[in-house]
Amino acid sequence: MFQLPLEIFLMRRGLYPPPPGESDIIGLEVAGTVDSLGPGVKTNWKPDERVMALLSGGGYAEYVAVPEELLMPVPSNLTLCQAAAVPEAWLTAFQLLDFIAQVKEGEVVLVHAGGSGVGTAAVQLVRLFGAVPVVTAGSPEKLKMAEKLGAAAGFNYKEGSFAKGVHDFTGGKGANVILDCIGGCNWEQNVSCLAVDGRWVLYGTMGGRSVDGDLLGKLLSKRGHLLSSLLRSRSLQYKANLVKAFSRRVLPHFSDQSASLKPVIDSTFSLEDIAEAHRHMEANRNMGKIVVNVIPQKQETQ
Ligand SMILES: NC(=O)c1ccc[n+]([C@@H]2O[C@H](COP(=O)([O-])OP(=O)(O)OC[C@H]3O[C@@H](n4cnc5c(N)ncnc54)[C@H](OP(=O)(O)O)[C@@H]3O)[C@@H](O)[C@H]2O)c1
Fold this sequence. Notes:
NADP, 3-stranded mixed β-sheet, quinone reductase (NADPH) activity, oxidoreductase, globular, NAD(P)-bd_dom_sf, alpha/beta, quinone binding, binds NADP nicotinamide-adenine-dinucleotide phosphate
């Protein structure tokens, strides 16, 4: 079972090649069961154990080889379908908020694409860290869902200025952190609603890659930090550290008493309907993750 993130389209078109040595089969995250262990495995994974994993490629397959450091146990109350929606989206959101932006309690975090896979994870993690998430999205349904997940406010970027929304919400102070997967078309509003000393974390460019205007002057006047990150090209050691930190700080909250964290599944497709799944995502219709089931006969029991 694997999940369908947006980079898949770039991979499908050959525009996001795998890092050297990685599988050229696309697919960046999976959940399933351990089939067998390679020689020299040091940890205690056992055949048939339910696991989920971050991949650099190879997820569109029935079997995938995974370095043991990148495996995580599936929380007991999650189905494999739900678990397939966790690794890449949640590790990305966790990495951006914790390793890169170092979000602190009480800070206001603006999450763009609040209805996306990464966005729905980020909103919940911001709350978990005691900070205040606000979001942008392109439809009232997506804003409503983000608010249900914990967003304190939401702004429809198609209907007005989100920068004004953030200014109003923060009493003019601005957002301490911006998680930005949009880039180009939003730069002016981003820098305008960034708080003094704020951290603007770029991790995608869905709204364009080039900027024309006084970005540097405006950023400097805010003493702003422009940070960027890609997860896929990171070293195995970095990813192993990320998986370890995530497993310790976040994973227990998927199955604690209040089950405070929930992977958000938009829809599931069987592998035969993969083209339809891609069209669904390309139309920006999904709220949360699209999961693809590679072994349909197992779907009922997981
Ligand atoms: N740097 C990394 O390591 C890393 C890792 C994972 C993902 N990513 C990036 O994170 C982003 C989100 O990935 P995902 O898989 O979570 O996406 P997703 O679930 O497919 O959601 C993407 C959403 O982004 C919004 N969007 C698309 N184009 C937009 C535009 N031009 N302006 C504003 N909003 C736009 C759409 O929602 P609306 O209806 O609200 O517009 C769309 O549904 C992608 O850019 C992906 O490449 C980066």
